[in-house]
Amino acid sequence: MKEKILEYLNKGHDYLSGDQISGHLGISRQALWKHIQDLKDSGYDIVAVPHLGYRLESRPDRLFAFEVSRGLNTRFIGKKIHYFDYLSSTMDLAMQLGMRGAPAGSLVLTESQTKGRGRLGRIWFSPKYKGIYLSLILRPEILPQASPVLTLLSAVSICEAVKKVTGLEPQIKWPNDVLIHNKKIAGILTEMNAEADKVNFVAIGIGLNVNNDKKSLISQATSLKEQAGTQIDRLLLLQELLRRLENNYLLLGDKGAKAIIEKWRSLSLTLGRHVKVYYQHKHIEGAAVNIDEDGTLLIRKDSGIIQKVSSGDVVHCRQ
Amino acid sequence: MKEKILEYLNKGHDYLSGDQISGHLGISRQALWKHIQDLKDSGYDIVAVPHLGYRLESRPDRLFAFEVSRGLNTRFIGKKIHYFDYLSSTMDLAMQLGMRGAPAGSLVLTESQTKGRGRLGRIWFSPKYKGIYLSLILRPEILPQASPVLTLLSAVSICEAVKKVTGLEPQIKWPNDVLIHNKKIAGILTEMNAEADKVNFVAIGIGLNVNNDKKSLISQATSLKEQAGTQIDRLLLLQELLRRLENNYLLLGDKGAKAIIEKWRSLSLTLGRHVKVYYQHKHIEGAAVNIDEDGTLLIRKDSGIIQKVSSGDVVHCRQ
Q: Taking the complete model, does pTM exceed 0.90, yes or no?
């Protein structure tokens, strides 16, 4: 009902009397008044003027599920949204929901995380109302070894959405760091629940620094606000991100990993660079010449030998 | 305390007076009487004769955690046992426990399952007190694509334990069916929770038909009792299985997958046979010539071309 009230107020864009609204929606004046109070408590600025009625002045900077759904127009991503003011970690909940059979496209969304997780157990700093913190449940019909393409797909989707909404042009450091001017704006963590020959489900976790202030960021990190010099509409950005994720996921199903890899290559900050890759207590140095369709990075060492690396941390060396 | 009472009764092997027992264990006669009643309720046949005392006549056919632990002598497998009279599925619980940080070697054990799961969502029939139904949590430092070796390792361990305890000689149909005389006695399901470059944990599920009666088995299945012609001690077999699993797991860490694959080959019913492998709505036919160190089956087709299959269902053709 609250969504309907907002929808109706939004349409009018002018004062609407209590009688008009309650008549239109078939509820009592008393019930309407109660809903309006709840909305105001949630941060909706609704003014009430005697003899004129109600008017919606502004919406709060919140990612409420019904706001995300409004005008989203996706086929399956975000059809079910689990929204929280805070969570320990969207990944923990998403993995739980996945095990309980949550449908593909289910979204876990939170305004802050107390224990946001990154790759290999690292922490993702998730201050309240500043970023976008989500986990998306997917049920792709792929083998476990094909799962890295989903991380690449997510990085591509973030770049596309950020560019569309802000005009900024992020790039990707292999495998899954999204950077602007060599500073990190987003991290991606893909976890799966799988048998040897079947992925049961994956949860893709995305942490995106949107309106973080410079002083709250570590030196290797940045936010879209810092880069764009202006506050960014998190809701618009989130919706665009969900659309891009869906489009790219459908593209993957349609055209295969190749189509995603092509997009990834064009956004890559790593390919063509001299890099060091640290993995499993070892490291390898050389030119990053390409990535495979399974997301593996190909490094040409000084000896000319080409070595494959399926995971690790990349350092881009100065040339 | 119940374990201590059993231990003490077991040592004596003759009548022990209530005073002796309660004195030895530092409990009251009243408390002892209560514990003895509980043990009798659990199926322990303890006779009480006036002026003589208590004697343990027999233990019940149950896999109580403290019975499994007694004399197990493993380093880490089974140090923590979660035992249930029935469960929907040991895998579901093990995956939950894994997410909550259960240590490597934690064991979920049940006397029956209402929804025992096999590979690809198939059902594992788990009648009460007839089989061994367990899930083992491991935290191997491997990449997700290396996980199939754990399934092979489990199949090898089952064969070794069954041979040691019953004298029967099971063989393995690729990848993970354990057969005697071409009928299935055990199934293995390995599920993992993983990132692209790190396995967080795996749960290895094992269902083993031990004392199932012929009439309760489908035609492609058999039980150790049916094959051996005698009731099998489930407890001894389970303990041996846990020891073999641990030994082989330590061997894997020590010598690598090669050592496991060698054992697997010697137990294989598939290698050298003409087979059909059904996988992902396709099938391939040819000679099963070898398996790789990552568990991949190599099929030589009539054309001479060798094709790799990483998962599927094998049908052994008559030659």
A: no
